[in-house]
Each structure stands twice: as C-alpha cells, then as structure tokens.
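haha ok so turns out i had the wrong file open the whole time. this is the CORRECT one, sorry everyone. sequence first:
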Amino acid sequence: MKRILFALLMLTPTALMAQDAPPPPPSTPGDTREFPAPRQTEGQAFEVRPPENPNDQPSFREQTRAPYHKTASYKVTTITDKLHLPWSIAFLPGGKMLVTEKYPGQMRIVGGDGTVSEPLTGLAMLAPLRKLGLLDVVLAPDFTKSHRIYFSFYENLGPGYSNTHLAHGVLDEATGAVHDVTVIFRGVPALAAKNFSSKQGGRIVFARDRSIFMTMGDRDANVQADYAAAYAQKLDNHLGKIIHIAPDGLPAADNPFLKTQGALPEIWAYGLRDPQGMSFDPNTGLLWENEHGPRGGDELNIIRRGRNYGWPIITRGKNYPGEPIGEGTAKAGMEQPVYYWDPVIAPSSQVHYRGKLFAQWNNSLLVGALRGIGVYRLEIKNNKVVAEEPLLTELKTRIRDVRVGPDGAVYVLTEQKALLKLTPAGKPEAAAPRLHRPA
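then structure:
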C-alpha cells in the first residue's frame, strides 16, 4: 500500500515540478529568493516584503512600489513545453516563431500548433555547439525581402570567460538552416576578467532609422574588487553599456563618444549593471531598459544619448552579504531610475504592449521576471509608473522572455522549456494549464 501511495504522489504536478526544478537552498530572512504571493489590493503595492534597506527613500513618489491595479483577466495556453533553456522569440511571417535556446546555443522554429523543428544548421562556424550560447534574436526590418536575422551570442571559454557578440545570417525555413552567418560586432575585452559571472546582456532592438541598440552586461562577479574596478564607468570597454551600431556593425553616426579620446565609438550610454530588457515606447519613441541590480536594486531606466546611469557608484541595492556598494543612491551627473524594485524581481525582458486583444494594457510595459516568477504590467503615464499588476505568478515559474505577437496576444517563454500564449479569458474562472507534464 505504501508503494502505491508513493507512486501516486510522484505523478502529481507538484512532484513533477520538483523533479524539473529543485527548490532553492534554505535562505536567510530577507533573502530576495523568498517570494510570497503578491498582495492584490487595489491602491496598495503588491509587494508585502519589507525593503532590503529600510532607510531608503525614493527620489520621487512614483519611483517604487506603485499601487496595484487589476485590469483584464487572461487565459494561458501552452503552445509547447518541449524547449530547452529558451531565451528569445521572433515572429515569422505566416504565424511561426523563431526561438533561441541559450545553451548549448540552438535555434528552432515553433509552429502555432506546437510543432518544434530540429535545431537549425549553420551556426557551427561561431563556436563548437558545446561552447556556443545564444541570446536574443530579431528579424531585420526588411526581413520579408532579405530573410536576414540578427542574433546575439557568446562563446564559453572556460569558467567566467566570455563576452557578448552580434551576428546576422539569412534564414532558410525550407531547409532549416541559417546561411551566410557573419559576426558584425564583438564585445571588448574579448575575454572578461577571470571569475566574471554570466551577466551577458545581449538584448537587441532596431530603431526607426534601422540602427541597432544592444545591451552589454558588466560581468561583475558580485565581489567588491569588481565594484571597485567600475568597468561600467570606463569608456574603454563595452561592459555595462548600451551599444549603438549600424546594420553592418559600424558605430552609428550620432554616437556621443566618437571623438572622445580612449572611448569605444559604439557606446551610446554607460553605467549599467546587467541590462536584460529593452524596448522602444511606440507612443513617445523613448528607449526603455531594465536591469538586474544587486540585492534590492533592480532598475527601470529611460536610456538617453551619452548618459551615465551610475553603476557601481550609485545604486539602490547593496552587496549580497549585506555591505553597501558605492557612494549612495544619487550623485550629480548620474541618472536616477524611472522605477526600481526592492526587494528584487530579477527582470529578464520587456515589451511595450500595443494591440487590440488587451485594450486595457495599451500604454503598459510588460516586464518578465526570473526571481519574481511572473510578468509585471507597469502602467505608464508621463514617463512614470503609476500602477503595477503582477501576472502569471500563479504558475510559479521563472519567465525568460515576453513579447506581443502580431495577433495582439502576449507570448511568454519560461526559463526551462515552455512557450505560453496569453489571450483574454472567456470566463472569469478560466484556469492556466499545468506547465509540468509527464513526457
């Protein structure tokens, strides 16, 4: 009888989830890995945990802990749960999607019916498969004519050794291949210092003039020596920067440091830590970015030409053992975040919603989260966050990418294996499907 009960227990969703994603190790009080259910009371912040720094004061009223506001109900459909460490989605003409898998780096084509292709060929020239890591992928503005895709990648050169690069190639859906792969940008230094972590950045967006912006992580190893080195503050490297280049990889003609001695010409903005999400607001044309801060310091910024965003001189967070970092939370000549999360949610991606399916979400920014295990809808007015609504927290899974499809639905990649689709709920009680099912 005991054997039967044990077998039945192992078939429950909870047990299956535990097999796929072991629970984190025990944490200390205040550890940001603890994530209780968000508060869903109109007009009050969703966050029920105290700030990591109880003495911290925002620079303006809307800078943190925006009030909760409920909008549209949604239902969740699992398109597929057969992916491996998916990182990014790009929508192809005809309804299919191009998906990158981080490591080992592969691309697959996913149909709206859940069919998943074999890995696309043609990427071997970048690095051996076991060494190649893929990040973001976007279609060229003239994709219907050129079939060109742009993607960020890194080569694993040993513990802590890699940097982020950008390539393009021609997608051949019929043969399942990427042809004419060309690396157009390589991060400097080619090898980040020993023990640097996996803060690679790699998010790509095209501007209206078809120039390219890409995020570059600062690769700090969460140690004081790296904070003191302040690579993100120095213009002789790409670490902790937003780069801006032409489609052929050359520095964009309007970059701010083209004539600055010792500065790399691709740099657009600097002083960032681990920028993960980036998108243009279609209403204002402003470039928004989110990034992982240290403990208690995740940020949302508006990225402007030549600006210094302060890391690691100023931050709302502190080092993981608890000691302070830098000189405080503000300094002349350094930008304040539009918004910050304390405790952190570990933002992973973002997209400005524009569509007809969720009319209530227009003028909202959707931010995926790895530690906050959800998608956060930020209501934006006059470039300030006036309301926040956690979505998908009921699934209790890490979110890697969030995108708005041509149909107005919201598409979400979980970190481990699933591609989800959010559409308006037909009934208020519509339930989300289980993510973890027997193979």
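Residues 2-10 form the longest helix (9 residues).
again sry for the mixup
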